[in-house]
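tool=predict chain=A
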Amino acid sequence: MKSYRALAALLHYPTADLAEAAGEVAALVKEEGRLSRNATAAIDRLAAQLTLGDLLTAQETYVGLFDRSRSLSLHLFEHIHGESRDRGQAMVNLAAHYETHGYSIDSNELPDYLPLFLEFLSLIEPNEAADLLSEVVHIVAAVRIRLERRGSDYAGVFQAIEETAARRPDSAAVESLLEQDKPPEAEAAELDKEWEEAPAFSGAPDGGCAAARDTLNRVAELAAAPARTDRTEHDHG
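tool=predict ok
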């Protein structure tokens, strides 16, 4: 399903390449016609911000959300396992699941990184993808609610992911995650304390992200390909 890959692209760190392609990416998400108006409207606003807004501001916003808040982490298992040994085993199991489908991770990202997971879903049969997504949809829903509380249009991306799952999230599981929340400033202060001795800079000198570039390249390939008619049987209303 094309929209999984497009949603993955929108969740990468904003770069000049992503800003240029954001409108096309948003159009691909809407093309399959499976999302609610609220989700598509929020994605359109996010794409406009990336395309027309200041890139540095977009990058600062992204870091403030996803890098300075564990409750908004893009690593799925961090929400349920934290840094425990259980998370490591869960990632081993997920990586093995990728391999059984012939999907080899060729980046430095962990298996539970949400954009990577979405890339995988785009490669497998749609009904299977929707079922697999259902296993973590309560995490997606909790992050969506947190983003909505912060007034972020990134919430639309998570709502879109949520709407493509085969089952709706369990409300008790979502509430259990939300009960652990701390004020954003407290979360940021905790992370700052942990990172006091961390290097000031890391990664590519131009702030580029190889995984993001690969995703955008594949999105461009999808945009040029004939539209598929795959649909899951689940009705998201």
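The chain has 13 helices and no strands. The two ends are 19 Å apart (CA to CA).
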